[in-house]
Every structure is written in C-alpha cells, then in structure tokens.
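Why run this: before we spend reagent on co-expression, it is cheaper to look at a predicted model of the complex and decide which construct boundaries make sense. The entries below are exactly what would go into the expression plan.
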Amino acid sequence: MDFLEIFLSANFWAAALRIATPLVFGVIGALICERAGVLNLGIEGIFTAGAMAGWMAVWLGAGLWGGVLVAAGAGAFFGLIHAILTVPLGLSQHVSGIGVTLFATSLSYFTYRTALPDVSSPPRIEPFKPLDIPGLSDLPFIGPALFQQTALTFLALFVVAATAFVLYRTPLGLAIRAVGDNPSAVESQGLSVYGLRIGAVVVGSALMALGGAFLTMSAFDAFFFGMVNGRGWICIALTVFASWRPGKALLGALLFGAFDAFQVRLQTDVGSFIPGQVFLMMPYVLSIAALILVARKADYPRALLTPYFRGQR
Amino acid sequence: MTTVSAAPIVLQLTQITKRFGSFAANEDVSLTLRRGEILALLGENGAGKTTLMNILFGHYVADEGNVEIAERTSGTLNALPAGQPNAALDAGIGMVHQHFTLAENLTALDNILLGTEKLSAMTSSRTAARQRLDDLMRRSGLTVDLDARISTLSVGEKQRVEILKALYRDARVLVLDEPTAVLTPQESDTLFETLKTLAAEGLAIIFISHKLDEVIAASHRIMVLRLGKKVADQPTEGSTKLQLAELMVGKSVPQSTRSEQAAGPLLLTLKQASAGEGRTALHAVDLELFSGEILGIAGVSGNGQATLARALSGLEPLTAGQLQLDGKDLSGSNARKMIDAGFARIPEDRHKDGIVGPMSVAENLTIETIRAPENQRFGFLKFGAIAERARQAIKAYDIRCQGDKAPARLLSGGNIQKIVLARTLDAAPKVVLAAQPSRGLDVGATADVHRRLLDARARGAGVILISEDLDELMRLSDRIAVIHRGHLSAAEKTETLDRSTLGLKMAGHGFHGDTGEAA
Amino acid sequence: ADAKDKPLKVAAIYTVPVEQQWVSRIHKALTTAQERGDVTYTYSENVANTDYERVMREYAEQGMDMVVGEAFAVERAARKVAAEYPETAFLMGSSFGPSKPNFSVFDNFIHEPSYLTGMIAGSTTKSNIIGMVGGYAIPEVNRLMNAFMEGALAVNPEVKFLVTFINSWYDPPKAKESAFAMIDKGADLLYAERFGVSDAAKEKGILAIGNVIDTAADYPGTILASALWHMEPTIDKAIEAVASDSFEPADYGTYSFMTYGGGSFVADEALASADAVTAAKEKEQEILDGLFRVNVNDTEPKSTM
Amino acid sequence: MIRFEPREPASLQRLILIPVAAAIVALVLAAIPITAAGVNTFTAYGLMAKGAFGSMFAFTEMLTRAAPLILTGLAAAIAFRAKLWNIGAEGQLYAGALAAVAVGTGWIDAPAVVLLPLVILAGAAAGGLVMLGPTLLKTRLGVDEVVTTLLLNFVILLFVQMMLEGPMQDPMGMGWPQSEPMLDAATLPKLMSRMRIHGGLIIAFAAAIAIHILLKRTVWGFEIRAVGENASAAAHAGLPVKATFIRVGLLSGAMAGLAGVGEVAGLKGYLTADLSPGFGYSGIVVAMLAGLSPLGVVIAALFIASIFVGADSMSRATSVSNYLADLIVAMSLICVLISGLFLRFRIKFVKPRTNISQETQ
Ligand SMILES: Nc1ncnc2c1ncn2[C@@H]1O[C@H](COP(=O)(O)OP(=O)(O)OP(=O)(O)O)[C@@H](O)[C@H]1O
Ligand SMILES: Nc1ncnc2c1ncn2[C@@H]1O[C@H](COP(=O)(O)OP(=O)(O)OP(=O)(O)O)[C@@H](O)[C@H]1O
Ligand SMILES: [Mg+2]
Ligand SMILES: [Mg+2]
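The model came back. Tokens follow.
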C-alpha cells in the first residue's frame, strides 16, 4: 500500500500544516477564552468576520499586515460583545456565543454584499506568499514541509509558544488559569475577575479571527460566502481534546490537518468503491474517538460556563 | 488575657448599614480594632457577620457608614475606598473566607503569589517568594507543601494556605470567617496558637465563630450581632458562655443530652469494606451499628469520612467487602435502594448535596419520596398533598422561610439543615447517617439538630454521627470509633474515652498495619 | 394576457450567492439584459431550500413578468407554485422537463466544449495523469466531467484520472488542498470544476482546464483551455417570448448548446500545442455542423487509477 | 458605577414590557444597516410587518417557519433544563428526516392511519437514538457532550449525503442527491389549501404542551429539574441521575427528530441534504430566549420566525441584500438577551461614596 509513501512525503506534511494553521489560531483562541472560564461559541462567526474584514482591508489597500490587524480588530470587536454579554451581564455563554456567530456572520455577509453589490466573480487580492528562506528551504524533508508555508503559519506557531509561555510562566497566565477555576480566588487577591475574563475573551477572539484571515489571505485570495465551513466548531472540539493545553492544541490541530490531508489523498485511490463521505467523516469520527480516550483525564476549567457575580454565591 | 486597649487603632468601622432590598443585614454597626487585638464576632446564622466582613473587604458596598484604616507608616486613619477588594488588600486587610477562595487547579504557591505581581510582568520571581514563605511558615507554624495542588490538600491545609496568602501580603488586619467550622480540635488549637503568635507580633485579628468555648479561650474582645445590630462589645474577661448565648439569641438555649438507654438488635454492618481510591480511600473497614444507639466516628478531616459516608449511602460502590442492613446484603446497591431499605443521610455539605437550591422548599422536602404513592399517581405529582405535608413539616421543624413555595437557596444554613432533617427523619428510618450535622450552625440550630438525632435514637433508630467536633461526639455518642487514613478503629464506649485519648487516636496512635503508625 | 412592454420585470432566486460560477452566468445575462433596457432585474441569493417556495410566491405576487431560478432541490414545489401564477413566466434550472402552463427549464449543457477541452488536455498531459476536483457528484457536474474524460481519452487512451468531490459548493481552500494532493500523486493537469483548483495549479506552475466561466485573466499562463457557459441565448430567448406573449413551457436547455452560442470553447494557444488546438477546432466544427454528438452521461465519474 | 441586584419574581407588567422594549431597541438598531443600504427606515418597517403578518399567506409562512423552530427549541430547552448541553439538534433533525423518509417512501405500504404514526415515531426514535450516544458517553465515560453533539452534526449530515447519493437516492431524480418522495399516506396533512402550513405545526404545539406538562406536573419532570439544578443533591436524595440524563437525551433528540419529520413529511415531501437552514442551531437561541420554558419556546419561535420572514420579505421588496434578514434576527436576539437581564436584576447606578467621617471631623 502506498499509505506509508503518503506519510513519508514532505508535501503531505506541508499540507497538514497548512490545513492546521487556521485551526491552530482558532483552538488557541478558544483555549484562552475557556481557560478564563468563558466558552466562546461565537468562533464560527468570528472566523467569518476575520476572513471578510482582513480580506476587505487588503482589497481596499491596507496591505497584508494591515489586513491581519484589521481582522484581529474585527475579532476583538465581536469578542468584546460576547465578553460583555457573558461576563459582567452573566448571560448564557452558549446562547451568547451562538448569537455572536449569527451576528458576526450576517454582518460580514451584509457588509460584503453592500460594499460589492455587482460582482459576478469574487475580487482577488495578492495573498501571503510561501516564505522561501534560502538554506533552510533546501533542507531535506523539513525544508519543503515547513518552508512551503506563509508568514501566517509561522505566526500561528509563534502564537502557540507565546500562549504557553504566558499561561505557565507569567503572573498574567497564573491569573487567567485561576479565574477559570475559581473566580473568587482571583477576586480575593485583589484582581479583577471581569477584567481578566473580558481581556481573555477579546484576545482569544482576535486570534480566532486570524484563523479566518488565514483562509482569505493565505490559503486563498478571495472571500466567499460560507467559506469557513465549520472550521470554527472543530476548534471547540480540539480545545477539549487538547485538555486546554497549548502544546496539545497544536498537536490536535496538526493531527486534524493530517487526517484531512490524508483523506484528500486517499479519496482518489479508493474513492471508486468507498463513498467519498466516509473520508470526509473521518476527521470528525476520529475526533470523537480521541475525545473518548482523553475524557477520563479531562481537566475542565472548573468555572467554565459559570458567570461570576460579585457577592453572590 | 491581657488587654491591648492602649495600642494604636488600626481599623475603624463607623455606623455601617447594609440593606438587601428592604432587609437590613447590618444596621448602624461600629467597630474599633487595635494593633495586636483578637476580636471575636458572634451572632446567630444570618445575624450579619459575614456581610459586615464582606463590606470591610470590599465585596459589598455599604449603604451607609464607612471604613477607615490606619496608614502603614504614620498610623493616621484614612478612608478605605468602598467596593474595592484590591484597595483593602493594599491597605493590609487579609480575609479568610468561610468558603475557601482557592483555585484548585493551581499549587499552594501559585495561589499565594496570585495577584502579588504585576500582571504585565514577563517573569515571576518564585525563588525569592519561596524564601519569604519558608520564613513565614517557620515563624507562624503554618506549614504546607507549597508545590502541592490545592485539590490534593486537606481542609486544614487549605486554610493554612488561605492564612499564608494574607500574611504574604503583609496583612495588618486578618479576618477569619468561621475558621474552625471545618477543623479538628487539635487543628483548632494549633490555629489559635498561631493566631496568638501573630497577634503578639502586632497583627489585629477578627474571627467569626459559633463555638463559644474557643471564643472565650482565644479572643481579647467579643462583639455580638443580633439581627444585624450590635448588641454587645465587651472584653472577653468576665464573659461567660451562658451570657454570650443569651446575647446572641435573646433568650437562653436549652442543651439536649443523652439519656441512658439499652442498645437493641444489630442493624447495620460493614465487613472488611473497601472503597474509593487515593488518600481518602477506605481500607477493609469493619463497623457494627445497633438499634437505639449513636455511633460516633471521630477523625481529622480528609481521612476517609466522606468515602465512608458515600459508601454507606450507596453513592460509591464497595471495591471489596460487604454492607448489610437489617440482615439484607446491600453491598452493590445504590442510593435509592439504601433509602428504600430505611437508610437516611444528612449530607456533609448541605448546600451542595442537601438541597436543590432553585427548587421550592416543598419540593426539597419531597425529593426523596417523590415516587411514593402519596406523592404521585401514574407519574403525575399530587401537588395538594405535597404542599400540605410540606406545610406540616415547616411547622413541625420550625423551618423559617417565606412559605413552602420559596426557593430553598434563600434559606440560611440552619434552615436548610432543617429541611434535610425533616425529609430524612420523617420517614422514621432505621439508620441515620449524620455527617457534620452542626457544622457552621449557631447554638440554637445546633441544639435543634442534636435533639432530632437523640429523638431518632430514642425511637430505636441507629445513628452514625460523623463529626470533627469532639464535644458534640462525646455528648451524643454511645460508642465512638476513630477513622485514620481510611482505617476504622474498633468502637469503644464513650464513658471509657476522654478527649486526649481520642485526639491521640485521631493522630494515628493505635493504628496497625500498612499505613498506621505503631501502637 | 397581452404582449408586454419592455422593460419586463424579472426576478431571480438563487440558492447560492451570485459569485458561485453557475449562478453568476445567469446573473450576468440578466444584468446585461437590464443594461440593455429590456428588463428590470432584482434577485434574492443564498435562499434556503425551505424558503424557496415563499420567495417564488412573493415575487409572483409582486407581479413579476418572469421569475428565473434553480428548481433543482425544489422541483415539485416550484412547479406547483408556477401553476398557481399562470400570468408569470418561470424559467428554472432543472434536470427535468418543462411543465404546463408556464414552467420552462434550462440547464448547463456545455458537455460539448467540455469534450473539446478534454481533447486539448489529453494531448497536453505528459504524466498522463489528470486531476479533477468537483463539488458534488450531481448530474450538472458529472456530465461535464464525463464529457471531458471522454474527450481526453479520445486523443490519448493512456490518460488516467484522479477524481475528488469536496462536498461543498464553495470551499476554495479545501478544493485547493485536494488539487495539491493530486499534484503530489503525479497529476500535471487539473480540471478546475471548483474555485481553488486553478490557484493550486498556478502555485505549482502546472496547467488547468477552466469550466463555466473564463478565469484566464485571473490565472495568467495557467488556464490551458476552458468550456464556457453563456446564459444570454437562453435568457434573451425567454425575454423575447415573454415580451411577445408567446412564452410556452419548453426546454431551453438546448440554448446552452454550442450551436446556439450557449456554450463555447477557448484554448490558450500559447500553452496548447498547435496540433491539439487544430484537432479540437475541427471537432468543434463537426459539432456545430451536427456531425458529432457528445454523449450526455450523468453518472458519477470515478478515479481510474 | 453600575451594580446589579437580583430581583426575585418579576411582575407581569415587566414580563411583557421589557421584551417589547427590547424588540423596539432592536428595530432602532436595525435602522443602521437599513439606512446604510439606502432604504427609508419607516418604509422598511412597514414592509417587514407586512411580510410577516400582512396577509394570510405571510402569516402562514411565518407559522410554517416557526414549526421546526419550536421543535428544535424544545429539544434544546428540555436538554438544557437538565444541564445536558445538546448542541446537536441539527444532526438529530436530519436523522429524524432520514428515518421518516426511510419509512415513508414505499418500504412499508399501509394506509395513512398506520403509516403516518410510524413515520412520526421513526423520526422521533432516530433523533433520540442519535442523542443517546453522546448521553451515554457523558454518563458512562464523562465525555463532554457539547463537543460530541457538535461533531455528530457533521457526521450525520455526511451520512445523509451518503444515503442520498447511494441506497436512498431517488432513481427518478436524474442523479440528484435526493430521496424518493414521501407516499401520500406518509405525508402530514396541509392545514390550509394553497398554503404551505402543515401538520408539523400541530405536532410542535402538542409537543410544547406535552413537555410543559411533563416538566411541571410529573415525577420525571421533577427529576429532570432536580438533576439539572443540582445533580449531586439529586443523587444524594436517591434520584436516578443517569437514567434521567438518558431519558432527557432521548426526549431532546426525539424533539429535534420530529422537526425533521415535519420538514420532510409536511413541507418538502422528500429529503435533500440542504433541508435545514440551521434550524438546529436556531433552536438553541429560541430555547434561551424562552428562558428554557416549553411554552415560552412557542412564543420565542414565533418571534424569531416573524422577524426572519418579515425582514426577508422586506429585503426583497426594497431590493436590499437579503442577508439583511439574518442580520436583523441576530440583532434582535442580542437585544432580547440583554433585556432578560432587566427582568432578573434591578440595575442601580451608584455614585462613588464620599468619606463621611472626615467631613464631620
Ligand atoms: N447577597 C445577598 N443578597 C441578599 N441578602 C443577603 C445577601 N447576603 C446576605 N444577605 C442577608 O443578610 C443576612 C445576613 O447574612 P450574613 O451572611 O452576614 O449572616 P452571618 O451572620 O454570616 O450568618 P452565618 O452565621 O450563617 O454565617 C442574611 O440573613 C441574608 O438574608
Ligand atoms: N445571594 C444571596 N441571596 C440571598 N440570600 C443570601 C445570598 N447569599 C447568602 N444569603 C443568605 O445569607 C445567610 C447566611 O448565609 P450562609 O451561607 O453564611 O449560611 P450559613 O448559615 O453560614 O450556612 P453555612 O455555614 O453552611 O454556609 C443565609 O440566610 C443565606 O440565605
Ligand atoms: Mg456567615
Ligand atoms: Mg455560616
């Protein structure tokens, strides 16, 4: 069988990393929100908003990095809405998240269509190009796998490292981990529960939006309706899979990316006698299987989903 | 005890009033605290003690009145900004809440350091912090494993972490809300020793307690709140238990005591029963309970009492051994079967395990018997009958609430306990398991619980009383067994025991085998 | 009913956004008609299946002269609504036939130019592996892929095909990934049924075959040949019929055939060999003259390696 | 500084006034995109009202869209009551529809009195069974049900596509991935001639009333409420916690399955993979708007449906992009959500306090 061949090909791993990149942004964003105790089901909409806003900014001439900033800003904006609804106002995190998804998606679509009413083919931008670093790119295997990637993929890897560092090595990370476990521990030490949670949700949402921006500014070069296609929801699953740890989150996203890349490659082989949907199901089914394996050890942020009201027990 | 009336004032509360809706939880309460002074705050459940402390710490904002605290260096009194816990912390107020405020997923060190460093800092200076803490622990005698996750610590250890949190921040006023409610006598004694040491170094301390003995033993001054108002503020010297109890309640409280009574037939046995895992596991426990007796289980918290209670009530499967009730083998049964077999349980954590907060008092009174024919027909609830019986229980047990439809969570701890008592004892169970039944209750409510347990014994039920309060155990139990690291000693007649023997046993003396120390 | 004055009121109902290739052809034809002054044009896009019938009725109630749309997933309902508004002409994309009194159908019958692009592709591939990425395996997609494969095999029996469906009408990043996977497997030519495939081709420096719309300008040096669909003949025919009050239930599908100008074939002569282009052009003439008929095969195409 | 103070039972007046005020605020906010698209706001509002209530057709269309929302709303409400976070109503809806089609397209030939109940039952059972998996995983192994139910949505949709392209494809469908049409005997009756409104609405209303009675008046309902509010206390009181979760899971999935039955046996007549425009997700919104009350679900579903249908129709009448409808629904949702706060809390504006004693000194 040429299964092995697939796994040994650098292009396969390059594809896995490329598919994983938006998920990495998303899962790290979701992880930061959840570590602080807030489930953010707005992720699917925030992805869309990031994809649309980032692309639109570049299209209007903001430059690629300008687009990245705008996308992050859009994510932060919707994150702020979710944060205000769920943290000081203490509304249900599920419903606020789904509300934010509806709002961000419909606002993105409406804005796009109102700005570009008469297109029959989506306008293109010049997207991020693969970084070609002389010397490194020529390394066997690693070179092609890593250096077919654009700057945004490297940014995603950096975000993982930075998040791990902040969470486990700095006073801020300590406070975020504490506020997701027991907000009164944080308050009794003079820190602001609301401040930390709102901050975490805003930053996390900005990262999620970068996942969307990757789709329109690196994976592709135009914005389409429906292009996020459930990628946000996958990140919510990956967060649990990762037991809320950045390193495992990267691993989970990569595994998912690898499944997906594998699925695409396998489909052309055996696609003639196994229905294509079976392959498409594979990443989801395997995610569920993986969850079952890690479930016993899952270490939930204990305050997840619980709003905190000062002076109320 | 020496008075400290000459020492400078560190804290002053002036005419504090706090209302929740139209109800005044604190009314016109003033208080002055001096350096090195230990003040005990007394009052019935709901008297407003916690509320007052929450105002001091900035969790609540008072409607009237204000809080002043002395400048660290000059000693002049400055107003404390209202509603800002971090301002209170900076000013040197440390608070150990009735319900611990620790993040369970973090280590002790993390919890102590939390919020003490700038959030924008890129590093955390743990080595220096560790040194300071080692020093603090040595001076105060409060030792904990700084690298242990909070979730692995016992209640006593958690409390030490809480106090260290305050000391690490150079607290000048330390507030402890019912610190001994969950401690053993030895732990309490150690705690008060520590507090005295700290006070001698100049720390001003306020502690809230329902235990009059320790209030008299450990404080310099006593303040009593009743219905939100200050009714007394007096030196401890010259105060008596009786006088204090009367000040709190407004009348005298009768204490129930056990009368002689011959034990009946064997009701419940545990044979070589094991359950659970980790540090709170049970190992090959033997236990026998007879009709008409109260069997006390003494032990330092976290030695397997909770597992024993869960195993007895069918909430946790036995991994080995046997459980028999009234001759029937119930080893593999669940909570439902145990209840049906005549087993009643008063859970240790009454808020978490005793009531369903948002449901009504009536519903909480019916929850254990909801499937009984008197409560339902063809699966449909009989509302009239349920409400009627609830009203009777409210009357019979004197449950103070706004009627049977009020959500149970609005009740005070004492009244919540009465709901649990009413629904468990009303079915005239054969066996009653009471875990920490009077923890955190005031004298009146405690007396009530004791009377109910003795009534059950008088009618022939067997009662297992798990408690960390030795006085309670000695007064109520016919026999007492001690639990240590999941091993249970043979029960001995209470008359043959005294506090110090029990205390030694609780510390592990007399236990054999793989985990206990030599006899 | 009497002959109607121009501009006619025309509404279109799309189940996808107007950027989607297929729908964009209808949108373009109607926009052109509007610019010409023949119609006033309004549309609803991304209309959910559930809402389709309501939207049809609303437009009919608004007194539209003609409603254009896709009845693919709502066949029965669409025909029922149409029957209730005999004053309105309905021109719907459909795999079925027309129905009385006012329901005409059309479809993207560009299997002919697809066959021609297949010929070009078959003679251009060096690795003899062609990758094909489709959306869903539905007749409208299958028939073009099959015609393409037939065309390629006609000139080069050695050609093997890799076929993948991404199960989405739009997920360009996913389509692109599928295309990359095919390139990894040795494909040196891609059939770009979906957006995203040509991007992969361009990025890897190989060639791609365009479908439905002409994207050569977006991917300079990448699009070897394209089979284009033009809705103008269909739309214009229908507008004329409505305007002259002679609209009958009919199958407008044939207006997508090359003879009516509904389908066309373009090849980039800088990329394709002159021989291949000549052969395709000859075949094109045969088709136009009615001497050669390309099969309509709606079964799902499968990988052949 | 703003402070919230809990307000225990809200007066009836507030109960009505506050959501109305929220709806008005939402409409005022909607004026922003409406104006941005260049339409007169008041015209737009008028057209919206007309689009949802202006004619029998508009009104029945609104009801038709509300029917599945009521059922998915109930699916979420009952599950959330027990703190079983079922985010998978979308998949369960498709499972229900698939089962209805499997039974109702000729496999069984029976008169309507037999076949229709079978179709309904099959749909409910399929939805319930799909939810049983995540429920068992939760109670047995502690697997997070938010994630499993969410992921199952994708798996089921793909499965439905697979069936529609394979064994269940309509041979007369020209290769389109769609099922055979439901037999007449398997079709829910239309409630009005020429309108789309169908028996699914009756099922939805009946289900809402049934669940209301279940929760309020029965032992099972009592157990569901107790487990949802405090599973630990319920376990201590001897209530069957796991069995309750399983019952709730089955019931919740069944509701979503019924939504699928209604859409396929009442509205469409056959199944395609784009049957639902996200009814499963909207159901969560509906349930939360309703405060998880089964009767409230009916009102919330009607509200969402009228906003959507009205705004959608308005966008058409004014030639504004029809994405406006979703946008207005989303904005209304957020406004109504916030307004719920005014029901539960009294909001106090407090001035930072001055220092009294220093003034007197
Ligand atoms: N957040 C709140 N909202 C409304 N009422 C409250 C709140 N907190 C306290 N109360 C009321 O204030 C009263 C005093 O409560 P507090 O907690 O101060 O009592 P306590 O003296 O600490 O009692 P205990 O001995 O039981 O701890 C209670 O009876 C209660 O009704
Ligand atoms: N958020 C709140 N709303 C209303 N009343 C409250 C609130 N928080 C606390 N209370 C009331 O404050 C009073 C004291 O509560 P507390 O929890 O201190 O009880 P307790 O008797 O100390 O029981 P325990 O020691 O077991 O906690 C009770 O009357 C309780 O109902
Ligand atoms: Mg208190
Ligand atoms: Mg108390």
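The longest helix of chain C spans residues 139-155. Chain C has a mean pLDDT of 89. Bring this page to Monday's planning discussion.
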